[in-house]
Design goal:
sodium; mainly alpha; 3 domains; Na+/H+ antiporter like fold; two-stranded antiparallel sheet
Length: 575
């Protein structure tokens, strides 16, 4: 019992010195694994790191079992044993609250063309929202039936919770494949895949939080709670992303310094993480919106050096990508410490569930992609609207197969699974199923991605979503001199308004609305006076003095009208 309690204390409160040792081991393994991959297999780094981490994690598990039985005089292996045991726990902070994922999404969103996003917003919205919801429901139904088949039923709410965990496609996994295999797909189809992976995680997080509250506090998780959660996560995330991105854009436009530009963008992502945590907003969604603003408007108009800026964020993206993929392999050490379910089935039955969930997840992905795209196509036919030529190439069945196979799970699914409370009875099996899908999608789907796309045949490359890109000369201050540099600029983009122009625009809009309100009040008063004059008796109207409404002074000014003017007024009132 004492040994168990000591190990539990190590798992819950890792020593700061141990955390530094863990980081040192982590980055050393990243360098070694990537060097071996470049010298031998030369496969995508995300796949190589995930595969290497699986092997290394099994070696660490073996070391944890061997070290307590080694009795060498004068050799104290306790510190190394503590490091290996607390390795994954010390690094959970990298995934906690999507802090690392915010940097990754910001970097990936900077590479996304906002003009192309506007042209393909229908397909990306359908895939990000309806596909995620339908995938969560379908995989929950499949898992519910499988667990009933092995005579160990799970509550359907727990199955839905698992569906919300594995339904989003991971942007880290998808972007890693698409960046290294650009020749496989045309650019507009790669754009749709990347766009979906950037936005569907916000929907899955809202669904996950709502289901988790429903399981632990069903009396509080009503429709009002879901609506409030949606507003808090989505709407506040959009507002925070726009506001912080705009402020960073204005700050970047006020100076010319590569180092300070890097500092501003780094602090921008950190502030987004901090503000969203305190406000309960969606960190992934806010990071994507801020990345779109800086990556399009910032790089085109205010960033002094595009190459340096892209290199910096490419380095950050690549480093965090490596950390997360290596970390996912070492998370398997937790299988040794996670509690088992009471009266659980045999290991062979568990293996059957693990293997069956892989084809069922692919089938769920195919159904959730095909049905919304068909409904979108039917919607445009009913309205007799023609889809953009590039969007029509997202509809064929073979591209649905590509979307199905590219729907890889990764760091976000692992982060959601790890955030489950120990009080959840099915936490162990949910985590095991999630990790099985992450390993399969990263290794098998990643390695076979090129062969699957090649088997489906060549895709047409006639249509394009790209806006026209032109190279313009921009003045940049270098030391005490101004030099001319060439930058890429989208012809359809305009610079964002300055803060003073924005305030003036808001003021002018307020004045226009106030003026329109006054005019509507004056029109209402005129109509009421006209109605009163129409309801009068014609005999009485000829005997009494007519009253005229003055719109300039807003007062009743009585004056006698001659017979000619009175007859004209009667004629107009009859009309």
């Amino acid at each position: 019992m004492n040994d168990t309690s000591d190990s539990d204390s190590i798992l819950t409160t890792p020593d700061p010195g141990t955390f530094v040792d863990v980081l040192t081991i982590l980055f050393t393994l990243i360098v070694v694994f990537r060097w071996i991959n470049k010298k031998t297999l030369n496969i995508p780094d995300s796949i190589a790191l995930s595969l290497s981490s699986l092997i290394a994690s099994n070696l660490l598990i073996a070391l944890n079992l061997i070290l307590p039985h080694i009795g060498v005089p004068g050799l104290d292996l306790t510190p190394f044993h503590n490091v290996t045991v607390s390795f994954p726990v010390s690094l959970f902070e990298l995934l906690d609250d999507y802090s690392a994922l915010g940097f990754l999404l910001f970097s990936d969103a900077m590479e996304l063309d906002i003009v192309s996003l506007k042209r393909s917003i229908e397909v990306i919205f359908v895939l990000a929202v309806f596909t995620t919801l339908l995938a969560s429901l379908s995989i929950a139904c499949f898992l519910f039936l499988v667990m009933i088949g092995i005579s160990y039923p799970l509550p359907f709410s727990h199955c839905l919770l698992f569906g919300s965990i594995v339904s989003p496609t991971d942007p880290v996994a998808v972007s890693g494949i698409l960046k290294t295999k650009r020749e496989l797909l045309p650019k507009y189809q790669r754009f749709i895949i990347a766009g979906e992976s950037l936005f569907n995680d916000a929907v899955s997080v809202v669904l996950f939080i709502g289901l988790r509250h429903f399981i632990f506090a069903p009396h509080k998780a009503d429709v009002t709670f879901i609506v409030r959660l949606f507003v808090q996560e989505i709407v506040l995330g959009v507002i925070v992303g726009f506001a912080m991105g705009y402020l960073a854009y204005q700050m970047l436009s006020s100076f010319e310094s590569r180092v300070l530009e890097a500092h501003v963008t780094l602090v921008l992502v950190l502030l987004i993480n901090m503000i969203c945590k305190h406000m309960g907003a969606s960190i992934p969604l806010a990071s994507v919106i801020a990345g779109l603003m800086i990556g399009n408007y910032g790089i085109a108009f205010v960033i002094s050096s595009q190459k340096t800026f892209h290199w910096l964020w490419g380095f950050i993206n690549d480093t965090l990508n490596s950390v997360l993929y290596l970390l996912m392999g070492f998370i398997s050490i937790l299988f040794v410490t996670l509690p088992d379910l009471g009266s659980h089935p045999s290991k062979a039955t568990y293996y059957f569930v693990f293997l069956s969930v892989i084809p069922l997840s692919l089938l769920s992905r195919f159904i959730s992609v095909w049905i919304p795209l068909r409904m979108l196509q039917l919607y445009y036919k009913m309205r007799r609207k023609r889809l953009h030529p590039a969007i029509r190439y997202a509809m064929p069945l073979k591209f649905v197969f590509v979307l199905t196979w590219s729907g890889m799970r990764g760091a976000i699914s692992v982060a959601l699974a790890l955030s489950l409370s120990d009080q959840l009875a099915s936490r162990s099996i949910i985590f095991a199923l999630c990790y099985t899908l992450v390993c399969f999608s990263t290794i098998v789907q990643g390695l076979l991605f090129e062969k699957v796309v090649g088997y489906l045949g060549a895709f047409p490359k006639l249509a394009t979503l790209n806006a026209s890109i032109s190279q313009v000369n921009k003045k940049r201050r270098n030391s005490h001199l101004w030099e001319s540099v060439v930058v890429d600029r989208n012809d359809n983009l305009k610079p964002l308004p300055s803060l003073s122009d924005l305030v003036c625009s808001v003021g002018l809009v307020g004045v226009a609305l106030n003026k329109q309100e006054n005019l509507s009040l004056d029109d209402g008063k005129r109509q009421r006076v006209q109605q009163k004059s129409n309801t009068r008796n014609p005999v009485d109207r000829g005997m009494e003095s007519s009253v005229e409404w003055s719109s300039t002074t807003n007062l009743f000014q009585p004056r006698l009208l001659d017979n000619h003017e009175e007859s004209q007024n009667e004629h107009l009132s009859d009309r």
